[in-house]
């Protein structure tokens, strides 16, 4: 699946960033637990018993293609969460989440994804990865345009949240969002529903970041919008969607590695499944996933999982 890039002009500021953490991000909490190293090419977050740490982007974005290479906490990471996400602010915020839930040594991480619109989430999909995300850096990407939010891992799409506003389903297309990331303790729920606690004898826990890239629309004022008439005819990421190969790759991931899909959770939604499930907005049903067999799902309090204010302040 080829991704093309362009710069958006008109009344907007077009941003194409490439890897300088001093230029693109601010450390927001954790004191010296968050470090920018190697002349701005590397950023590390650490967690100890006293505090975690986090950073946020200097810019706010409204659509774009964003890549970040991350190497997750190695070894016994049970109880820890590494969060990497886009979010606006306030009770009606929009949000696009990657969250990596740690585990005991030798057990795989859980990759938790969610999409919030107008303050409402409850759109969780969870995956196991097909590699060890602690041995090396891997690229986690968000493609966000007016028609799709596509989550990708090393260029492979794992989830496509489609714009179904015409059918009454909200879509994040009007609020500018910053990039946030944090490493924090969540041993009350993160690993096996809170049964496995953080082993502080293994602290400090460290996650590393490099090769940030963003080809994005950055409104030049609070009232500016990213409009289709400001985009050249070739479209680029503005018109990007999954081609047939991309759809097949996503189906492969969801069939073999997806362990939870909110669209198929009859126990959670006894009054009726979310409408996007019947409108092809959820992709493969969790009931079709091989990885979901014999897995006991633990539904977490959505306010614990995803409120950016708590994560920013070292929840």
Helix content range of the residues, please? under 10%
Distance between the termini: 38 Å
SS-based class: mainly beta
Number of helical segments with 4 or more residues: 4
* Named CATH architecture: Sandwich
Instruction: Tell me the radius of gyration.
Output: 19 Å
At the first level of CATH, the class is: Mainly Beta
Beta-strand content: 25-35%
Averaged pLDDT, please?
A: 84
Total E-strand runs: 16
CATH third-level topology: Jelly Rolls
Outline the biggest β-sheet.
Answer: 8 strands, antiparallel
- How many structural domains in the coordinates? 1
Structure, described:
Belongs to the glycosyl hydrolase 16 family. Pfam families: Glyco_hydro_16, XET_C. It is an enzyme of class 2 (transferase). The protein is mainly beta and about 325 residues long. The chain has a single domain, classed as Sandwich (Jelly Rolls), CATH 2.60.120. Helices cover about 10% and strands about 35% of the residues. A hairpin with an 8-residue loop joins β8 and β9. The longest helix has 14 residues.
Give the secondary structure arrangement, pairings included.
Layout: E1 12-18, H1 21-24, E2 25-29, E3 34-37, E4 42-47, E5 53-57, E6 64-71, E7 80-87, E8 95-101, E9 110-116, E10 125-128, E11 138-144, E12 148-153, E13 156-162, E14 178-185, E15 205-219, H2 244-257, E16 258-261, H3 302-306, H4 308-312
Antiparallel strand pairs: 1-15, 2-5, 3-4, 4-15, 5-14, 6-11, 6-15, 7-8, 7-14, 8-9, 9-10, 10-16, 11-12, 12-13
């Amino acid at each position: 699946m080829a991704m093309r890039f362009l710069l958006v002009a008109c009344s907007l500021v077009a941003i194409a960033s490439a890897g300088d953490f001093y230029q693109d991000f601010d450390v927001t909490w954790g004191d010296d637990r968050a470090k920018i190293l190697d002349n701005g090419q590397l950023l590390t977050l650490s967690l100890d018993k006293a505090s975690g740490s986090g950073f946020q982007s200097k810019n706010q974005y409204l659509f774009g293609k964003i890549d970040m290479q991350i190497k997750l906490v190695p070894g016994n990471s049970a109880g820890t969460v590494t969060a990497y996400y886009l979010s606006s602010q306030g009770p009606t915020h929009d949000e696009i989440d990657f969250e990596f839930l740690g585990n005991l040594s030798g057990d795989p991480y859980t990759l938790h994804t969610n999409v919030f619109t107008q303050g409402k989430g409850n759109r969780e999909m969870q995956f196991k990865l097909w590699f060890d995300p602690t041995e090396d850096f891997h690229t986690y990407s968000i493609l966000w345009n007016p028609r799709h939010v596509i989550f990708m891992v090393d260029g492979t799409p794992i989830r496509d949240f489609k714009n179904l506003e015409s059918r009454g389903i909200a879509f994040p297309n009007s609020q500018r969002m910053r990039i946030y990331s944090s490493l924090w303790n969540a041993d009350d729920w993160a690993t096996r529903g809170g049964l496995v606690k953080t082993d502080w004898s293994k602290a400090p826990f460290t996650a590393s970041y490099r090769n940030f890239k963003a080809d994005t629309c950055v409104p030049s004022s609070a009232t500016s919008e990213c409009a289709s008439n400001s985009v050249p005819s070739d479209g680029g990421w503005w018109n990007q969607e999954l081609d047939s190969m991309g759809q097949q790759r996503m189906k492969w991931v969801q069939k073999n590695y997806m362990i939870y899909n909110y669209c198929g959770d009859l126990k959670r939604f006894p009054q009726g499944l979310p409408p996007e499930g019947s409108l092809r907005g959820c992709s493969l049903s969790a009931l079709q996933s091989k990885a979901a067999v014999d897995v006991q799902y633990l539904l977490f309090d959505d306010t614990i999982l995803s409120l950016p204010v708590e994560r920013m302040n070292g929840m």
